[in-house]
Amino acid sequence: MTPTQNQSPLKHASFSYPPRPDPPQQKVHSEPIAIIGAGPVGLITAHILIRDGFSNVRVLTRDGGVGGVWLEERVYPSMMLNSIHAQFQFSHHPLPLPPNAHSTGGRLTGTDVSTYLQSFARTFLEGKIRFWCSVDQIRRGRGEGGGWVIKTHDLRTGMKEEMCVRRVVLCTGGNSTPNIPPPLSPLSASRAGFKGPVIHSSESFKRFDEIVQSVRVGRSNKPRRVLVVGGGKSAQDISAYLANQGISTTIIYEKADMFLAVPKPLPKAVRQSRLSLYLPPPPLSGTSSPSTTASEQNASDTHTEIIRLTSILAPAIELRTPVERFLHTTWLGSKIVKRTWDSFPRKSVRPSLLFPFLLPVSCAAPHFGWAQATDQLLEDMYLPSMRSGGNWLTWPFKVVSISELATLGEERRVKRQEEERRRM
Fold first, then answer.
1. Cα dihedral sign, 342-344-349-352
2. Which residues are registered as beta bridge partners of 129?
3. CB-based contact 35:173 (threshold 8 Å)
4. Which end of the chain is more exposed for a tag (fewer CB within 10 A), N or C?
C-alpha cells in the first residue's frame, strides 16, 4: 500500500532480528516475537515465552486495554459466567474469591474476569503491550533472515509503521470481528426505511443510552420495541437485561444455545474430574457447522467415539494411562480387549480405524472433553498426566485442580536439559 498525501509516512520499528541462519540459543531468545491479540490466550502466551527466556516479546492489540472479549467496555452489567471460581484462572496467578461466593457457588461475573486479566497484565506484562495498534498486513520477510513483516497503524494518531519480527503468534480468537449478516446491516436497514440504530452485541452496552433514546415514546404515543436477532448467550443476556429495564424486547432465532443454569453448581467430582471420559457426551444442538447435515454430524460423532475407544484398545509401545496398563497388562483387561475387537464389524469399521483421516472427525461437545485434551497434551510432551492422585479405579473421580500445572514450565525445562545432555 502506497501512502497518500493525507496518510502518515511509514515508520519502521526500532527492533529487528539479525539475518543469520541457525543462530545460537542466546540469539534465538533475543529475536523479536509479535503476539497478535491481548485476550486470555495472548496474555498467557506472552508470559510463558518470557518465562522460557525470550526477551523481545511484544503484544499488539487494537483495543485500549487487555481482555479481548473480556475487555472492560465489552462486559455488560449483570453478566454471569457458567464457569466457577478456580476454573477460570492461570496456575501461577490466583483469582480472588468473588463476593457472595457461598450463596452463588463461586460463579464469576464478567467484571471478575476483566479485572483479573488486567491484574495479570500489570503483574507480568508491564511495558510489553502496544494498545490501539491495528494490524493491517502480515507478510514474509525477504533475504536470508526470513521472518515476518507486520504493517500496523495507530488508531489514535493514524501513524503507520512496519516492524520486522522473527516469529508471529496469532491469538485473535474466533470472536474478534462482529458478524452482521448483509440483509441486517445498517445500510440495508436504512434502504428499507428503518431509522433506528443497528447495533452488534459487542457494542450493545457501550451504546445503551442510544438504545434507550431510540425507544422513547414518539408523537404517536406508541412505545417502540427492541428486536434482538440470535439465540446465543449474549442475545439471551441482552434481551433479559433490556426487559428488566422496562424496555419492550422481542428476540428471534433459528436455534438457541443450551446453557446449564442451576442455583448451585454440580459437585466438583462431576464437573471438575475426568468422569466425562467414561460418559460419551450427547450431541448438542448448535455445535455443528451450518453446512453440516444431521446425518453427517451423527456419522462424524460416532466415528469420533470409535477413535477414542480404539486409541485405548490398540497396542502401543508405551502404555501411558492407568486404563491402558490395565487393559494390556492384566488377564481381565486382555479378555476385554479381545472381546471388544471381535465385536467390531471387520469390513465397515476396521478400515476406518486404520485410515481415520478418510472420515471427518469433530467432537459433538468439546467442553466435556477438556480433561482428556489436557491429558493428551501432557502425554505428547512426555510429561505425567496422572497428577490428581488415586489409582486406576478412583482416578476418574479425582478433582482436577489448576495447581497441577504450576510446575509445568520447570518440568519442560528439565526435559529439554535432559535431551540436550543425551545429544552431547
1. negative
2. 59
3. no
4. C
- Higher model confidence: residue 244 or residue 276? 244
Instruction: Count other C-beta atoms under 10 Å from residue 77's C-beta.
Output: 13
- What b-and-e string marks burial along 380-410, b requiring 16 or more CB atoms within 10 Å of the CB? eeebebbbbeeebeebbebebebebbeebee
Rounding to the nearest 10 degrees, give the CA dihedral for residues 204, 206, 210, 215: 40
Exposed / middle / buried, residue 343 (Cβ in 10 Å: 0-12, 13-18, 19+): exposed
Place of cell 526477551: 55
- What DSSP letter does each residue of 38-51 carry, written as one string? -SHHHHHHHHHHHH
Long-range contacts of 320-325 (CB under 8 A, 24+ apart): 320/379, 320/385, 321/375, 321/379, 321/385, 321/386, 322/386, 322/391, 322/392, 322/395, 323/392, 325/392
Question: Which amino acid would we find at residue 227?
Answer: L
Of 170, 135, 140, 163, the closest CA to residue 10 belongs to 163
pLDDT in tens, 177-219: 788 889 999 999 999 998 889 999 888 888 888 888 888 755 5
List, for residues 52-67, the tens digit of each pLDDT value. 889 999 999 999 999 9
Q: Is 281 helix (H, G, I), strand (E, B) or coil?
A: coil
Q: What are phi and psi of 384, to 5 degrees?
A: -65, 135
pLDDT digits (tens, 9 = 90+) for 30-49: 999 999 999 999 999 999 99
Domains of the chain: 10-170 (3.50.50.60), 182-252 (no CATH), 268-423 (no CATH)
**Torsions phi, psi for 148 (to 5 deg):** -140, 150
- What is the SS3 assignment for 33? strand
Q: Alpha carbon of 308 to those of 163, 304, 362: distances in Å?
A: 44, 6, 12
The DSSP 8-state label assigned to residue 409 in this structure reads H
DSSP 197-226: ----GGGTTTTHHHHHHHTS--TT-----E
Q: Give burial (CB, 10 Å; 0-12/13-18/19+) of 170.
A: middle
Strands (DSSP E) contained in 141-279 are: 148-154, 160-165, 167-170, 226-229, 249-252
Residue 196 main-chain phi, psi, to 5 deg? -85, 170
Burial (CB < 10 A; 0-12, 13-18, 19+), residue 110, is buried
Torsion of CA 236, 242, 244, 250, to 10 degrees: -70
pTM exceeds 0.90, yes or no:
no
Exposed/middle/buried for 79, CB within 10 Å: 0-12, 13-18, 19+? buried
